[in-house]
Amino acid sequence: MVVAEAIRWVGTQLTTEGISSARLTAEVLIAHVMGMDRSSLYCHFDEDLSKEQQYALGQLVKRRCNGTPTQYLTSSQEFFGLEFEVTPDVLIPRPETEHLVEHALEIADQGNRIVDVGTGSGCIAIALKKNLPTAVVGACDISQAALRVAARNARRLGVSIDFFVGNLAGTVRRESLDLLISNPPYVPLANLAGLQRELYAEPATALFGGEDGLQNYQILIPQAATALRSGGLLLLELDYQVRSAIEAMLHPGEWEQSEVKQDLAHLDRVLIVRKK
After folding, report:
1. Phi, psi of 262, deg, nearest 5
2. Pairing relationship of beta strands 77-79 and 255-262 according to DSSP bridges
3. What is the pLDDT of residues 168-193, one digit of tens each?
4. Could you report how far apart the first and last alpha carbons of the chain are, in Å?
5. In this structure, what DSSP letter does residue 48 have?
6. CB 241 within 8 A of CB 214
7. Which is the CATH superfamily of the domain at 3-66?
8. For a tag site, which of 82, 174, 229, 249 has the least CB within 10 Å?
9. At residue 209, what are phi and psi to the nearest 5 degrees?
């Protein structure tokens, strides 16, 4: 079987199972088993896959058809122009979370002290450190397995970040931060039955925010008020449907200058608020 034939075969298998972007996924999986990037695949359409590669590809296709996300099959996901290792221990980085990093970079300074809460793969903290090399960046997560993935990503991408086990911002010293950033778990448990099956492969602790999706904001916002210095900034990713509920948590005695930024779909996505 040559590459062109393999693309057609895999694409057909995936399409039959109702998997979207079947051609793209086929190319990604074939490039992975051949040890090359997807762009290089176009120069090898007539190349034969070995028996070992065909077997490996068949196993990947079977797992993808059974609901395993492509990123877990290849252990890779791009985020903010960087390639991150991802495993089932971490949430797969989403493109909409790049808006969180973009807005943080617009307001952060090189000398800032920054903590990323619920870091997962480390994508937010690492992207910030790559662009703010003299900032002091820390990152916490309640999952030690996730922190091991994040630490490997930091080493491979050449940045120094202080990773620590913690429940949200509870372990950060009082009034020590200039910026606290987080993409907390915010999928409501009430929506569990209607989720795509691929989401069931991701760690539940990194996805769900209680019955209404607000649990982690209720914990994080008061902790941020303690951890941030006067004038410090809190940046949160949010679901547009709960914007008003989250803004209602911002006690006027503690917070000022609240602003919400939209994503490319014109949905409320990033909350930025300054501590008084």
Report:
1. -100, 160
2. unpaired
3. 666 788 889 999 999 999 999 998 88
4. 65
5. B
6. no
7. Ubiquitin-associated (UBA) domain (1.10.8.10)
8. 174
9. -115, 45
